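A reminder from the course coordinator: this example appears on the midterm review sheet, so study it carefully.

Given structure:
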């Protein structure tokens, strides 16, 4: 398992809610839903982090609870924050639709002898496979 999300700590191999930090997470959500910017909501909650970190915290589904992490935020609050984030992004023109870029097809054709040897070392196997190439078609 990787990084433990803010608001939790690991005790005896189990994730448990860190009371002080979980209250800060709740304050982050409520501040953001009250109209504060991500950075200001984090600052008000007592969380020293960057804008992007606060954004990721609002999108962290572990706060809803899962098989390892107990819940900190209810589903309704999480969804409200998600909708608010989308609304603000649209208002600021920060929603980009992907452009239709034509797929580039680079045809690669070659003839090769059949592979008859297997090596444990993947680099040696790759070297062997390349050595079987006879010519490009």
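Designed residues:
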């Amino acid at each position: 398992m990787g990084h433990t999300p803010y608001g939790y700590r690991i005790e005896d191999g189990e994730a448990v809610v860190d009371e002080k930090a979980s209250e800060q997470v709740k304050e982050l959500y409520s501040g953001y839903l009250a109209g504060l910017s991500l950075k200001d909501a984090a600052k008000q909650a007592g969380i020293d982090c960057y804008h992007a970190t606060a954004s990721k915290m609002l999108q962290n589904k572990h706060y809803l609870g899962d098989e390892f992490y107990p819940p900190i935020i209810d589903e309704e609050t999480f969804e409200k924050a998600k909708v608010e984030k989308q609304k603000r992004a649209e208002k600021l023109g920060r929603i980009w639709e992907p452009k239709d870029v034509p797929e580039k097809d680079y045809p690669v054709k070659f003839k090769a002898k059949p592979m008859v040897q297997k090596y444990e070392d993947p680099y040696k196997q790759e070297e062997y496979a390349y050595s079987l190439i006879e010519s490009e078609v």
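The chain has two domains: 8-91, 106-137. The radius of gyration is 25 Å.
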